[in-house]
Amino acid sequence: MVLRQLNPKPDENGVDGKKSAVLHRDLGYGFLPLAEGEGNYLVLENGRRIFDASGGAAVGCIGWGNERVARAVMRQMLAIPYCSTVFYTTKVQEELCRYLVDSTNGNMSRAYLVNSGSEAMEAAVKLARQYFLELSPAQDQRTRFISRRQSYHGITLGALAVGGHEYRRAKFEPLLMKNVSRVSPCNTFRGKKAGETDEAYVARLVEELDAEFQAVGPETVCAFVAEPVVGAALGCVPSVPGYFKAVQTVCRKYGALLILDEVMCGMGRTGTLHAWEQEGVVPDIQTIGKALGGGYQPVAGVLVNRRVIDVLEGGSSVFVHGHTYQGHPAGCAAALEVQRIIQEENLLANVQAMGDLLSRRLQERLGDRPNVGNIRGRGLFWGIEFVADKEKLEPFPSDDHVGLAICERGLTAEYGISVYPGAGSADGIRGDHIIISPAFNVRSEEIEWIVDAIGRVVDDFFATATAHMAV
Ligand code: PMP
After folding, report:
1. How distant, in Å, are the alpha carbons of 123, 200, 391, 400 from that of 382?
2. Are the C-beta atoms of residues 66 and 74 closer than 8 Å to each other?
3. To the nearest whole percent, how much of the chain has pLDDT over 90?
4. CA dist., res. 52 & res. 410, Å (int)
C-alpha cells in the first residue's frame, strides 16, 4: 500500500536538483530543499512557505531568523569561537550554567554542557555510575538501569541501550549494553484499565517497578530513567498525577537515582521551565536539549542535584568523561540569548495559555474522528495518536507509516504545515502519532490556523486512504 506522497528516492534531489551526496537517515530522509526560516515559517528554495507547527523535532521555541540570537552567536564567534574545557572556561558557559542552576530553585547545583540530547544522556548514565563508585567501594555492584518500554533516550549506543524504542534499537541490539531492563510506561490511553482510578493505576505501575528492582537485585541498580512527558516514542504522553512521586519513593527505598530525560519536554515546552516542576519531584540527574538553544546552535546539557554533586566532589577522581566540543561558546551564547528572550517576553505564560487553547481546539476539531484514538499532551507539546479501530484501540500496521504519511500530506502545497511524525510498533503496543509543538511565542490566531490545517489534513487523509486500508 502506498500512502506516502512526497517521498522521492533518497538520492534523487539535493537542493540544486542534482543527485545528493548526503548520507540520508531513516524513513523520512530529508528531501525538501529548505532555504530559510522567517518567524514561524519555513521557506523552501522555490519560495514556498510552510508553517512550522513543531519546531522540527520540538526544537524551535522562539521561531526562526531571530537577529538577537544571531548577533549574540556572532559576537561570541568573533570573541572566541571554541574553548577546550581542559584549561579554559568562558563567560558564556559560566553564565549559562549559572542561569540553569538558578532556575531550579537551589535543587540542582551544577550544569554540564554538551552538544546533543544523546550526549547528555551518555553523560547522565556515566555520572550515575561514578556517583556510586565515589559513594562507597561496596556500591561497585550498581551496574544496572531500569527504564520504560516505549521510551527514547538518544541514538548513541549507551543512550540507545537505556531507551526502549524497538525500531531504533532493533538492528543494533547485539551491540547494546545488556544491563538495562524495562517496565511499563505510564500511558493512560493504552495502559490504564477501564474504570481504574489514577491512584490504582499508579499503584499498579509502582508495584511493577518494585518487582523489577527485586527481580534484578535492588543493590545492583544505578538509576531509574524516564521522560516526564514521553516524546518521540509515544507522542507527548504525560503521566497521571502522583506517578513520579511514587516512582521516586521506590528509587529512594532502594538507594537508586532518578534520572529524568527532559531533552524533548524540558526548557519550557510543557509550560514550566522544567517538566519535573509539575510532578512534585526533583530528579537526581536531569538532561535537557532541544528548547535550550531553540535550534540556533547544537547545545544540550545535564543538571546534577546537590546530593549527587556532594558525593562526586568529595570523591577521589574527576568525572571521567568529556567531548572536544563540550561547553561550546557559540552554543552557550545561543542558548543564553534564547533563554533571555523566553524570560523577557514571558513566554512560559504564553506556552500555558496557548497550550490550553491548542488542546481545546484539537479536541473539538478531531476528538470524535473514528481514526483519532487519543489527543494528549501538556503545554505546547501535543500528540495525536491514530487508530485503525477506535473501540479496540487497534493501531494501524506499522508498515503503513500512517504518522509519516499524514505529516507528508501536511507538507504539500495544499496545506503547508509541518508537524513531527512518530511510528507505531509492530507489536501494536503503541500507535502512529504526530507531534504538534509550535514555538513558545505562537499567537492565538496561529493556533486556530494550525488546528484548522491539521483538521483538514487528517480528514482528507483518512477520507482518501481508508479505501485502501483494512479498517
Ligand atoms: N532524549 C529524548 C527524550 C529525546 O527526545 C531525544 C531526541 N529526540 C534525545 C534524548 C536525543 O537527542 P539528540 O537527538 O539531540 O541526540
Report:
1. 28, 25, 22, 22
2. no
3. 86
4. 11
One-letter identity of residue 281: V
ipTM of the complex: 0.99
To test the pocket of ligand 1, the residue of 162, 261, 263 to mutate (highest count of ligand atoms within 8 Å of its CB) is 263
- Global pTM reads 0.96
| 37 in Cβ contact with 61 (< 8 Å) | no
pLDDT tens by residue, 15-54: 666 777 777 666 656 778 999 999 999 999 999 999 999 9
**pLDDT tens digit string along 97-145?**
999 999 999 999 999 999 999 999 999 999 999 999 999 999 999 999 9
- Mean per-residue pLDDT over the chain, rounded: 93
Place of cell 543538571: 303
Going from N- to C-terminal start, the domains of the chain cover 79-344
**Site residues for ligand 1, CB cut-off 6 Å:** 57, 116-118, 121, 152-155, 227, 231-232, 261, 263-264, 289, 300
Pick the CATH number of 79-344 from 3.40.640.10, 3.40.50.1240, 3.10.20.70, 3.40.50.1100: 3.40.640.10
C-alpha of residue 119 to centroid of ligand 1, in Å: 9
State how far the Cα of 285 lies from the Cα of 283, in Å rounded to an integer: 5
